[in-house]
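R.M. (postdoc): so does anyone remember the format we settled on? I'll just put the structure tokens first.
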């Protein structure tokens, strides 16, 4: 068997443990686990592991909590084939995941509570098996898909929305890759659905996972090594909005003007957002003053 599991992680806001389970293997999910709410296969589950006297508990706000005797309360989302890595964006709180396809399509998904992502009725935005007819109503489509076995790609590896300070051009983009080719892409999410995917590099390594260091810079696990994604573009200096090499009262003035309505440049937004919540506000002014006053 395969497709047993691909990730576990604690929710940054609720503290619950999320675990992704594959559909259990065999081509095409012949047992129909992806659309079966009585099994944990083909799902992401959400459980509370901080429960006295129990292995785990079920959060009462889980989407299928106390739904019926035949539905597993642990399920958070379902209709997934083999979700290989998921992660939260600390700014938007969106839960991103990458679902490995069968024969034709790899998926990038935003995971929401209670939604059905279609497998094995659909693979990506397409009916499964290819060429068959299906009703897509009720399924949550991927935000992006790419075709399998084109130019050597074969298996998506999910990553992270970049929130580091060393690569300005990647800020806010979901960074992910392909295991076979080592291709790495950056996907820009848009609320209107006009997401933009761009190819960043063909690394030639077998990417099994992405990670983050203590500064939110991207790490890559591949070929028994850990790599760091780097760039020769300018490094962001936090607090130095005017890029004069100093953090001083002029940067405070720039921050105040942005709060009052001036549109910041990309560099000003990243440099001035000291608490990394996606906006420049009075909390960043306080942090900026503390930074200036610190010895």
């Amino acid at each position: 068997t395969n497709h047993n599991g691909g990730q576990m992680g604690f929710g940054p806001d609720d503290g619950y443990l999320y675990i992704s389970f594959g559909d259990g293997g065999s081509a095409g999910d012949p047992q129909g686990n992806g659309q079966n709410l009585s099994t944990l296969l083909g799902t992401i589950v959400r459980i509370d592991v901080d429960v006295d006297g129990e292995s785990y508990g079920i959060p009462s706000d889980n989407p299928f909590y106390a739904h019926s005797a035949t539905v597993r309360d642990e399920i958070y989302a379902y209709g997934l084939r083999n979700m290989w890595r998921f992660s939260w964006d600390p700014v938007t709180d969106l839960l991103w995941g990458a679902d490995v396809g069968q024969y034709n399509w790899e998926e990038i998904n935003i995971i929401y509570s209670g939604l059905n992502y279609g497998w094995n009725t659909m693979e990506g935005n397409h009916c499964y098996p290819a060429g068959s007819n299906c009703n897509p109503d009720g399924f949550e489509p991927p935000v992006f898909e790419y075709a399998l076995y084109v130019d050597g790609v074969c298996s998506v590896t999910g990553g992270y929305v970049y929130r580091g300070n060393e690569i300005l051009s990647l800020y806010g983009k979901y960074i992910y890759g392909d295991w076979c080719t080592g291709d790495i892409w950056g996907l820009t999410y848009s609320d209107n659905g006009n997401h933009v995917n761009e190819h960043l590099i063909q690394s030639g390594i077998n990417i099994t996972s992405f990670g983050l260091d203590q500064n939110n810079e991207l790490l890559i696990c591949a070929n028994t090594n850990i790599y760091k994604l780097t760039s020769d573009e300018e490094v962001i200096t936090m607090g130095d909005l005017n890029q004069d090499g100093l953090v001083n009262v002029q940067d405070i003035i720039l921050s105040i003007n942005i709060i009052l309505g001036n549109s910041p440049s990309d560099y000003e937004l990243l440099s001035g957002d000291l608490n990394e919540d996606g906006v420049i506000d009075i909390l960043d002014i306080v942090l900026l003053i503390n930074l200036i006053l610190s010895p």
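R.M.: ...and that's the designed sequence above, right after the tokens. Also worth knowing: The longest strand covers residues 105-111. Residues 164 and 217 are 5 Å apart (CA to CA).
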